[in-house]
Amino acid sequence: MDNLKKNQIEVVTIDTNQNQYQDYPTLTLRKQTKEIEYFSVNLDEKVTLDMVSIHGGKFKMGTPTQEQGRSKDETPEHEVEIKDFFVSKYLITQSQYQAIMKENPSFFAGDNKPVENISWFDAHNFCQQLSQLTGIKYRLLSEAEWEYICRAETTTSFCYGTTITSELANYKASFGYGLGGSGKWRQETTEVGIFPANNYGLYDVHGNVWEWCEDHWHENYIEAPTNGQPWLEKETSLDSEEEIPRVIRGGSWDDTAYYCRSGVRLWALPSFKGKLIGFRIACDSMST
């Protein structure tokens, strides 16, 4: 790991302040600098892919009982152990997808906007093609890995704190969450990396587009794996894979803050394509 690149990033958290003379709280953005480690892969002459080093550990997956809007499918809270791995700093962009797949199916055109209008199978094929090109085995994140990198050692509703604002993420900010008020709803995807990173140096973990995960959908976390591996049905056929929903996480530009919480989980059929879903990728090693 000594040959990893290092970079300083600015991380933002929300402080909530209220005194007896105020009817509403004041939200203050607190900024600090952190160092991340990563490696870069050249996809073609102009396009690169940055993979951030994530140190493993244990965390509580799911949402606490007091969290506003908590859903039954986010329960029960359970401890999960995650191993070290690498994850893409950004959502996979249209230029990255084009470099590997030689096509761009996105509804909202823009080289640095996240690719969308792709199925789970398309995302999976991207990982396979990239693996063949580089010799490194790329894959989708497990749902547990996704929540681990989204929370980034936080336990609040969002990686930034107890709420978010339209300064921090691209979501349907016409509606607030918790002590946060309304803000600008952009009504389309935005370029990756224009909002602040979380504590792990990752961008757009809340909003912009939902992210495909490897896991099959389950109604709750009862009997969920605790080792960070994908939760997959044991007996499936090629035909049945078309019918088993896959997990999506993170919310999108067309979802309210409620759906962008760290613990929120939804599903889509793996063949579904829409302008709300993209993906992020992972690998376990930077070498073959």
From TrEMBL:
Question: Where is each Sulfatase-modifying factor enzyme-like domain found?
Answer: 50-282
Q: Name one GO molecular function term.
A: formylglycine-generating oxidase activity
Superkingdom assignment: Bacteria
InterPro entries (alphabetical): CTDL_fold (IPR016187), Sulfatase_Mod_Factor_Kinase (IPR051043), SUMF_dom (IPR005532), SUMF_sf (IPR042095)
Name assigned to this protein: SUMF1/EgtB/PvdO family nonheme iron enzyme
